[in-house]
Design a protein that fits this description.
By secondary structure, the protein is α/β, with parallel strands linked by helices. It has 14 helices and seven strands.
């Protein structure tokens, strides 16, 4: 994209941050009559829609033990599995071995591993595996090829042959029958794309990994509910199945964003292509195990999340999507990106002025809704590892854990407003748990 496009992103970041700041400062600076009623009304809207979204999971069709009997081998499509791997020596051998152990017709399954300029032993391991698995296809890119994960996936597209693409991270683990059940779900719902629920393998490693496990369950609860209520759902990078022709019509993977999955999700929405959410079976992956890695990962997610709204906001405000979808996107945009900035500035001003924070009821309502989704998500019948300690204390601590977003979002929004845009893809280290 052009430099003017990046400047546009920066300008929109400034406008967004200033707007949040004005919303925070105004009620502190001026005695606005009946402002508390506006806060109360906002809490009611947040609670009503949040509970509505969560409640839609009660009627969720669980295909964990259901197969479409009419889905014979002849009806299964040709599938290409794509894995962009850079410096993945700890996990790449395990991944390849498990992929070739999946239940799927061998003549309809192509496995592509993109060695994206690795500097560790990944190329040597892949060379050994290619001799062990004759059908394994290795694609190599130079370290300075550019485009990050999106660039690697786009480069691999020209080698693909299948009707569908399954994008996995190098640490992904699937159950043997995942692909069969996945296409049974596709046929039942006529989806253009499907996102598998993400499950944490190292759930009991420490407090952070347990919280991330519950966070992923909460996220899947919201995703399924949003899809059911408003027709809005999102891809999550690992475990995303996409119909190839739909992907190409949307412009493939965006190499000018740090979160290709979130960016593609909005483009699919604008193209009126539906993303299904499959609870079982999940795609299992590693959670980061320390605060440094967590904040690095979350900064990338926050930046990519904001970028997509800045990039496609004008299209989202047009008639390309219906009003309920606009409301859903506005609701979650405000809670995910606006509220953390407003709440932090509100707290700082309250301390400086020795006043009571004004927006705390909204924050409390949002955290309560998240807590309910935490509890419900961890109580659902789930394949794959789940958090062991699902008592009230753990739910409370997990909700408190979510407060890290109230540090990450303001910092990222401020950084995007001040500093010139640089596309930096920071990979998450996989240890091979």
């Amino acid at each position: 994209m052009s430099n003017s496009f990046y400047k546009n992103r920066r300008l929109k970041s400034i406008i967004f941050f200033v707007a949040c700041s004005l919303l925070t400062i105004t009620p502190h600076a001026f005695d606005i009559e009946n402002f508390s009623y506006l806060i109360f009304a906002s809490c009611l809207v947040i609670a009503f829609y949040g509970l509505l979204v969560i409640s839609k999971n009660i009627n969720r069709i669980n295909l964990s033990n259901t197969f479409n009997k009419n889905l014979t081998e002849n009806k299964l499509p040709v599938l290409d599995i794509l894995v962009a791997a850079r410096d993945e020596e700890n996990v790449i051998a395990r991944l390849v071995e498990r992929l070739f152990n999946l239940d799927y017709p061998t003549n309809k399954l192509n496995i592509y591993i993109i060695d994206d300029g690795s500097s560790d032993k990944t190329p040597l391991i892949l060379d050994r595996l290619s001799k062990e698995y004759a059908q394994l296809k290795i694609i190599s890119r130079s370290p300075n090829a550019g485009g990050g994960k999106s660039g690697a996936l786009n480069y691999a597209l020209k080698f693909t042959q299948g009707e569908w693409l399954l994008v996995l991270d190098a640490d992904a683990q699937l159950k043997k029958d995942t692909l069969i059940r996945l296409f049974s779900f596709v046929q039942e719902g006529s989806w253009s794309a499907v996102q598998l629920r993400k499950s944490v393998m190292n759930v009991n490693k420490n407090f952070l990994t347990s919280c991330q496990s519950m966070e992923m369950a909460m996220d899947a609860i919201f995703q399924y509910g949003r899809l059911t209520v408003a027709g809005v759902s999102e891809l999550r990078g690992n475990g995303e199945l996409i119909k190839k022709d739909i992907l190409l019509e949307c412009g493939a993977f965006n190499e000018d964003t740090v979160t290709d999955d979130l960016d593609l999700s909005l483009r699919l929405l604008l193209a009126k292509s539906r993303i299904g959410i499959l609870w079982n079976p999940p795609v299992m992956e590693e959670a980061v195990e320390n605060l440094t890695a967590l904040f690095s990962q979350r900064q990338r997610w926050a930046e990519g999340g904001l970028q997509r709204f800045f990039d496609y906001g004008d299209q989202l405000l047009t008639k390309k999507i219906d009003n309920l979808q606009k409301f859903d996107l506005t609701y979650f945009f405000i809670l995910q990106y606006g509220l953390p900035i407003i709440s932090m500035l509100d707290l700082i001003l309250s301390i400086a002025l020795v006043e009571t924070p004004i927006y705390w009821p909204i924050s409390l309502t949002a955290f309560t809704i998240s807590g309910i989704a935490f509890w419900y998500g961890t109580s659902c019948l789930s394949e794959g590892p789940v958090a062991q300690n699902k008592n009230l204390l753990m739910i409370f601590l997990s909700v408190f854990y979510l407060s890290h977003w109230f540090l990450v979002i303001p910092w990222v929004a401020l950084k995007m407003s001040i500093f010139p845009k640089k596309i930096l893809w920071k990979k998450t280290l996989h240890t091979g748990v």
